[in-house]
C-alpha cells in the first residue's frame, strides 16, 4: 500500500487534502509548500514516484477573488500562495521595459511594448487594481481578439508565471529531486505550456546517458560524461491527451506528460 505526500503552495487546497487524509488514514500527508523548498523539508525521505502536475488549477482560475482570469472581474492578485508580490504590485510599480520584457518572455506577446506603454499611461491616472482594468488596457492596445482567443490571454499567462516564479520553481525542484527519488523511482511531469515543457525536456536530456558505442575505442570522455547520468527517459515523445479527454476537459488540451526512471542502484 502506498503513502502519499501531497505538496501545494496554495493554502486553499488544505481542506480538500484533509478529506483525503480522512479517507486514507495514515497514508496521506499534506505539505503546504512551494515545490522548490519542499525537497529540503522532506529530509531523507525517498519516494518511488514523484508526479508534478504544474500550473494553475481550475479552482484557482475559476475563483474571481484570486485574480487569475480576465473572464471574471476581481482583484489583480494571481498569487498561488496568497503571499508575496501580487500582479497588481508588479503592474503598478515596475518600469515600462521590465513589464514589456515579462509580457514578451513569458507570454510570447508581440505587442508587449505597446501594452506596457499603455499600462504606464493608465496607471498615471489611477492604480490598476482589477483584472477587468488590465484586460481593457490590453484590448485597447491590440484589439479584443487574436484569432479565436481573447487578446488578454498571453499577458495574463505571462503575469501569472512571473508572479509565482513558475519556471524558477520548476528548475530548482528538478535540480534537487534526485535527492528524494528512490532507486528505480519514477519522475512524471505534466506541463501546460512550451516554456515549462522545454525545461523538463532539457532536464531529461541532460540527465539521461548518451548512447555510446560499446567498444574499447569509444572516447573515454564520452564514457566519463555518462558516469554521472541517472535518469532513463521513458517517454521519447511527450504523451498528450486523446481527443475524448480534451472534449471532456478542454483545459487538458495543452498538457504534455514526460516520464523518467532513476536507474541508480
Ligand atoms: C494543475 S493544478 C493541480 C491540480 C491537482 N493535481 C488536481 O488534480 O486537482 C496545479 C497546482 O499546483 C500548485 N502549484 C503550482 N506551482 C507550484 C509551486 N511552485 N509550488 C507548489 N505548488 C504549486 C498550484 O497551486 C495548483 O494547485
Automatic annotation (TrEMBL):
<comment type="similarity">
    <text>Belongs to the methyltransferase superfamily. RsmH family.</text>
</comment>
<dbReference type="Pfam" id="PF01795">
    <property type="entry name" value="Methyltransf_5"/>
</dbReference>
<dbReference type="InterPro" id="IPR023397">
    <property type="entry name" value="SAM-dep_MeTrfase_MraW_recog"/>
</dbReference>
<keyword id="KW-0808">Transferase</keyword>
<dbReference type="GO" id="GO:0070475">
    <property type="term" value="P:rRNA base methylation"/>
</dbReference>
<dbReference type="GO" id="GO:0071424">
    <property type="term" value="F:rRNA (cytosine-N4-)-methyltransferase activity"/>
</dbReference>
<protein>
    <recommendedName>
        <fullName>Ribosomal RNA small subunit methyltransferase H</fullName>
    </recommendedName>
</protein>
<dbReference type="InterPro" id="IPR029063">
    <property type="entry name" value="SAM-dependent_MTases_sf"/>
</dbReference>
<keyword id="KW-0489">Methyltransferase</keyword>
<keyword id="KW-0949">S-adenosyl-L-methionine</keyword>
<dbReference type="InterPro" id="IPR002903">
    <property type="entry name" value="RsmH"/>
</dbReference>
